[in-house]
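3.2 Worked example (two chains)
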Amino acid sequence: MNKRVIAKWAGLAGVGLLLAACGNNDAEIKAMAKKMHMSKQQAAAFQTCAKDMKSRKPIFIDGDKAVQLTKVPLEICACHAPAVAQMFKDDKLTGHARFAAYIGKVKRKELKMGRRDLRTAMAPEKAGQILIASFRKCASDFAATAAAAENYPKLIVPFDLPKPKPKKKKEGEDGEGEQHASAE
């Protein structure tokens, strides 16, 4: 019985060490923020962006065409952090999670940020547009670099948008309903 308990705890400890090794990248984020001379607010925005975008695959839609990022490298979030820090109040960076969820959806309406979360008195729709434009510019700028081509060969890939479902006609819309009524 004792050997089983020891083996169980040793296995759990091994799994814990593996998870700790794969854990978050806070040290890398802090080092990159320090290297880029980010302010405290920008560093917090950078860390929030990295956390929110870690498992997301953002989609950029232009009319009927779209592209998708297969991964969001830290360099993109570092570029996007000043816009996030400028947009949101220091204690309201949770609003970025709404942006992260929005940018990963295929079917979406206009992004509206919460007025209470925003630092300035701008319209919530305009704030959403600014965040999307900033993130898109940072992604395209990074994708054009040699480091991106070397480390992330397929960073931006084409994305097929779902085809809109044809709308069903109601009985009265096609004119047949009137003909049947007059025949009787």
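3.2.1 Second chain
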Amino acid sequence: MTKTEKFIIEIKAIKEQLNMLQNKYAELYTDYEGDAFDDQTKYAAEFENLTLLVTHELSSQISFGVSNLQTLSKLIIFRKKHKEFSHEELISIIDKNINAKEKLELLKAKNIDEIKTEWNRIFKNISYEKLCEKLRLETS
């Protein structure tokens, strides 16, 4: 098991703990409801919002982050495998219909159809450029 896989397992455990806490303490805000002072109900509602923020919202962000980590890991492996191609060449191969001259030049290095097929299998047909944007990778 890689360090990345171990890290993701531990992060997912934290996410599950947050989900458990959300369920266990969903009604915690009711301890703060009442009419001892003006707007106490509003304060209790804000308490509920904050408990949701530190449980449900953080859990959701962890899920998105884990997904992005897994995707970025696959992208790094893919880029290492096809290191002979620049970012721009990969955009041409994966995202665009390149012209015959470009295709001949790139074919000298590797079968671009295989690269595109591999990409679509790993990244479920998302465009190379869009994936880089999603992962906030500088592409120039």
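3.3 Remarks
The mean pLDDT is 90.
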